[in-house]
Amino acid sequence: MNTTPRIAVIGAGPGGLTCARVLQRHGVDVTVHDRDASLDVRDQGGALDMHADNGQIALREAGLLDEFFALSRPEGQAHRSLTPHGDVLVDYRPDDGEDGAPEIDRGQLRSLLAGSLKPGTIRWGHTLTTATSNGDGTHLLTFGNGTSAVVDLVIGADGARSRVRPLVSDATPVYTGVTFVEAHFDDVDTAHPVVAELVGDGMVFATGDNKGLIGQRNSGHHVRVYIGMRVEADWYRAADVDLEDMAAVRAALLERFAGWNERLLHMITDNDGPYINRPLYVLPPKHTWPHTPGVTLLGDAAHLMSPFGGLGANLAMLDGAELALAIARHDTLDEAVLAYEQVMMPRSAEATASGTEGLDRAFSPGDRNPADAPDFAEEKERYRLAAAEYDHDR
Fold it and tell me: I need a labelling partner for 127 at 20 to 30 A (CA). Which of 205, 239, 247, 287 fits?
């Protein structure tokens, strides 16, 4: 890059922060704007598995791979798959040294990335209200706090409800038909031993008959459970349930999971604090847009997908790293963005379709076929082989 372009990343999630970090490592100035008032103003969500063939590649380009491994939990790669009756289909325990997809709390990852940026890079409390093309490839950004900026490139890393996306696409997220109701368990090993045993060091999946219970261990003796159902997005209204009424939500959930193994039902009944309703939305699997000077998207803003497959954050970070590298290596922003989009779009289309297929298999009628249970050891090896192929191709 021969000039000093004005680059703004909208959104300080893993993808946007990775992009900013890699840009700065290559001497390119950037600002990141986020609506949060500070780094730790809200809960950042559950754990993420960083795959060797995407998330770890991005962390390597960011110069943070060693720091990631120091924070990550390789034992978190453990997976247990059960039937609704409690029968074990898979009980995978990773070998010592398994590094195909170690787990890390989303908040820890965000802190790692944010802390690697130059002071002042992130403009907290900046909610994007409008992004307007000036007709010459630049854009005027206005923020809810009354500030504004004109930039040569605006990068939409602002998630599912992106305010940058309408500059290039009229696509909007659509409901998958599956809703997760999130439940939290604190001091799980002492206060909730049944849940702790079910989840183990990593995750437990019990799915069947259009429903599922998914437990995920986080750091600090904390577990998150996602109670999944194929229902209308406003299922609680039809059931005349107030989401603030824990007892009413619990009773409605237990009714839907009637007949499930009693031990599994502890993941519905023993939670600490309120339930959180989370309908799952996706963008069309082949979401593309015409190349538009001065703007592009990454992560959920570009390819919002099902959480099945664990690719959302991984691909967002790879997007961010590849976009930053393209900017550093091309003579113009336009050439860089075009090169990035030509690689990112077909990759995200394949991943989005795969995630939707995985969700549909898990939340299908009847019991799961044992043959459908993943081979997790083979999965980790596939990540490593794909990482080696990625490096070879570049």
Answer: 287
Tokens of 259: 């007949």
* 51: helix, strand or coil: coil
Helix/strand/coil (H, E, C) string of 132-190?
EECCCCCEEEEECCCCEEEECEEEECCCCCCCCHHHCCCCCCEEEEEEEEEEEECCHHH
pLDDT tens across the length of the chain (394 residues): 656 899 999 999 999 999 999 999 999 999 999 999 999 888 888 999 999 999 999 999 999 999 999 999 999 999 999 999 999 999 999 999 999 999 999 999 999 999 999 999 999 999 999 999 999 999 999 999 999 999 999 999 999 999 999 999 999 999 999 999 999 999 999 999 999 999 999 999 999 999 999 999 999 999 999 999 999 999 999 999 999 999 999 999 999 999 999 999 999 999 998 999 999 999 998 999 999 999 999 999 999 999 988 899 999 999 999 999 999 999 999 999 999 999 999 999 999 999 999 999 999 988 877 777 778 899 999 999 999 999 888 8
Which residue, of 252, 267, 282, is where some domain finishes?
282
Q: Has residue 94 been placed in a domain? A: no
Residue environment code for 240-278, b if the CB has 16+ CB neighbours within 10 A, otherwise e: ebeeeeeebbbebbeebbeebbeebbbbbebbeeebebb
> Tokens 């107030």, residue?
242
Is position 91 within any domain?
no
Backbone angle region of 86, left / alpha / beta, with phi > 0 → left and psi within -120 to 50 → alpha: left
Q: Is the pTM of this model over 0.70?
A: yes
Task: Name the residue range of residue 116's domain.
Answer: 7-81+100-172+283-393
Q: What whole-number distance in Å separates Cα of residue 17 and Cα of residue 86?
A: 41
Q: Is 228 helix (H, G, I), strand (E, B) or coil?
A: strand
